[in-house]
UniProtKB/TrEMBL annotation:
<dbReference type="Pfam" id="PF08282">
    <property type="entry name" value="Hydrolase_3"/>
</dbReference>
<dbReference type="GO" id="GO:0005829">
    <property type="term" value="C:cytosol"/>
</dbReference>
<protein>
    <submittedName>
        <fullName>HAD family phosphatase</fullName>
    </submittedName>
</protein>
<dbReference type="GO" id="GO:0016791">
    <property type="term" value="F:phosphatase activity"/>
</dbReference>
<dbReference type="GO" id="GO:0000287">
    <property type="term" value="F:magnesium ion binding"/>
</dbReference>
<dbReference type="InterPro" id="IPR036412">
    <property type="entry name" value="HAD-like_sf"/>
</dbReference>
<dbReference type="InterPro" id="IPR023214">
    <property type="entry name" value="HAD_sf"/>
</dbReference>
<dbReference type="InterPro" id="IPR006379">
    <property type="entry name" value="HAD-SF_hydro_IIB"/>
</dbReference>
Amino acid sequence: MSTPRLVATDLDGTLLRSDGTVSVRTRAAVEALEERGVPVVFVTARPLRWMDDFWPMVGDHGLAVVSNGGIVFDVAGHRVRELHGIDPADGLLLAEAIYRHVPGASIAIETVDGIRCDPAYDDAAHPVPAGTPTGPLEDVWTDPAAKVLVRNDAMEPAAFRDAVFAAAGHLAEVTWTMDGLVEINAPGVTKGSALVGICGSLDVLAADVIAFGDMPNDVPMLAWAGRSYAMGNAHPDVVATAGDRAPRNDEDGVAAVLERVFGL
């Protein structure tokens, strides 16, 4: 098997340890590959506003995928290279379907400029910044949304996900990464679709890509890549999709595989 030409990796639960840090070992592996000219592309659900701490790790290729494929970001130029968003008209129809079929749901949108929320939206783990535009979605959804966030902490998590899929799955791309939260992108927009676009621009084939992930939103990326690894802590759907297993994220699983595959 030939040596991969590009590495694609999720962040939370994959490249990052559970405390959100990047280990010395993992940082060294990423830097070694960049020195060899092998791009390491971060492919994450995180919004653009949560990425500043990680940009120094992105090498000369300067590209990253955020918001589950909603944005391809040019790190070197510090600009949005591609926005695959949900426009306000389509988004309000989507929100109407969710509000109608998912009792107690609250909705926020991630835009290029930051998050905007309906009045009921509450994320205790990640409070929205002061001054965040808040109000009825018809008032705050005035620009394309890179990603839509739907929360409900009262419903049983699987029932909540099923309800959102039933309400919105025919209108958009629905996925999830944690209980109580469902994430929605424009139709056909996934981590996988964004990675396909980046690889096309770099003349890299799927067979030359090695990818790592841990949650269902990683499945399209892992299904496309020629070599795919589910983390030791991965969701069963990811394990079923990936071709191989890596150690857990807290064991520096991505670094361990990269060291072996690339002889670092």
